[in-house]
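User: Predict structure, ligand glyceraldehyde-3-phosphate.
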Amino acid sequence: MVNYKDLGLVNSREIFAKAMQGGYAIPAFNFNNMEQLQAIIQACVAQKSPVILQVSQGARKYANQTMLRYMAQGAVEYAKELGCEIPIVLHLDHGDSFEICKSCIEYGFSSVMIDGSHLPYEENVALTKKVVDYAHQYDVTVEGELGVLAGVEDEVSAENSTYTKAEDVEDFVKKTGVDSLAISIGTSHGANKFRPEQCTRNEEGILIPPPLRFDILAEIEKRIPGFPIVLHGSSSVPQDQVAIINKFGGAMKDAIGIPEEQLRQAAKSAVCKVNIDSDGRIVMTAAVRQVLVEKPAEFDPRKYLGPARDNLKALYEHKIINVLGSAQKA
Ligand code: G3H
Ligand code: 13P
Ligand code: ZN
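Assistant: Predicted complex:
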């Protein structure tokens, strides 16, 4: 058993309280490899932002849980070396069982998500409470989820009331004891968040997605005032980067994200944590594709992963400064 405090990590309680008071949100960036983690730390240190390092189940399979934990420990030391001790949370993203959450807690994670959002309500409550009861013994914070994120890939449509039911949140928070709650108000995972036919076109022909359901968010805030809310699926899918991918041999079609203006608005509310993964993947892929096409003789991974890392750092700084408002809040 490793306690996260011995690794120099923090849980999310205090940084969420400050974010709530200050009207900004903490970035929750996913990582699977060294370059992504370096870019996250470089950007957060440069902007003096607290950060949540997210490890998905896919990341655990890809990179190995032990590797990722030691990388996070290294990230704490790296931030110090860069000259700024920012609060760093190591968080399990979309944990789907008690056992996975327990294992991460024992490995030194400071925060876990138990995603019971696909379960019937009472089962979600029971599973989430079980994780909370275990996690709180070690002062590890827990994120639960209510409502299912819409996804074009699984044919879940907004009309099927996949949005979080505001009338459930008070009961869920009370019964489970969770520290934060992920909600569904129109975001979804991946680079294809909306089908083109769900969007309208502006004068320049650019697809404009339907707005997030700020009315549901407001209703939730009314029912659980001051309680930290989490937004998953919050990539904006930068169109200039998608264009680079496609110019250099890629085939990303109908890629549409959440407009940054709406995330800016959300960050000022009770939304304290904003999850961004796909945008980083897109920026990294664009840089790698461009280098490999423009310099076909190149075969040193540092020559394409290096530029990808630089562009990732710039992306994360942009999110921190212009979207989430977490700069200078470390
Ligand atoms: O919420 C999902 C994250 O973007 C992680 O995705 O399971 O492919 O690592 P992944
Ligand atoms: P995106 O796919 O929009 O980046 O969402 C990531 C996420 O929610 C991770 O949990
Ligand atoms: Zn997610």
